[in-house]
């Protein structure tokens, strides 16, 4: 009975926290806490640059770039992109490296609430929080939170901090190329830099710009 009550309490807390963050900017995230703890354990300094800005102060190009880069079915899926999952599994069965198929919603769930790792427990919790987020938040809110908490450098979280660091301007003024460059570093934001792009980042940047146009350009973002 005590175990059931404890589980019920955890569920209630998780639902409450998710609903609250539908309206309130997160003070921190699980990823930031994990990075701080890791730095402390290794005896090194770790500076966090995390600056929350509302949707109205983020260039629509930034939202378009991350959708083009990370989750082109974002507007239509319910948190899980089944088509991309099937494609990833099929590619793996044909000898290719197994690639991730996480949606923006899943990444928000993971970055906001969970620890790193690939255990079944963590993946199960990721699925649980993804469903909660999709049920209680709008798509715009999911994008807004993602753009504010996504890791874009060592200690750099969110497009506002990254834009100021890399381009010396607020996120509201990001151009198409700058937004695409920021999205291009997402596979490895610790090693890759938008303001000093490697050949890989340049190639990925060009692909993202093409995809931004193909999925509808600025008109696409107006639906959110």
Give the number of helices: 11
Structural class: mainly alpha
Give the name of the CATH architecture.
Orthogonal Bundle
Structure summary, number of beta strands: 3
The largest sheet, given as strand count, sense and whether it forms a barrel, is: 3 strands, mixed
Distance between the termini: 44 Å
In the CATH scheme, the class would be Mainly Alpha
Strand order of the largest sheet: 1-3-2
Overall mean pLDDT stands at 91
Morphology = globular
Q: Which ranges are low-confidence, i.e. pLDDT below 50, for 5 or more consecutive residues?
A: none
Q: What is the name of the CATH topology?
A: Penicillin binding protein transpeptidase fold
CATH superfamily: Biosynthetic peptidoglycan transglycosylase-like
Secondary structure topology:
Elements: H1 2-20, H2 30-41, E1 49-50, H3 60-70, H4 82-93, H5 104-113, H6 120-136, H7 139-149, E2 151-153, E3 156-157, H8 159-167, H9 176-184, H10 199-214, H11 218-221
Parallel strand pairs: 1-3
Antiparallel strand pairs: 2-3
Helix pairs in contact: 1-6, 3-9, 3-10, 5-6, 5-7, 9-10
Notable characteristics:
single chain; 224 residues; mainly alpha; Penicillin binding protein transpeptidase fold; 3-stranded mixed β-sheet; 11 helices; globular
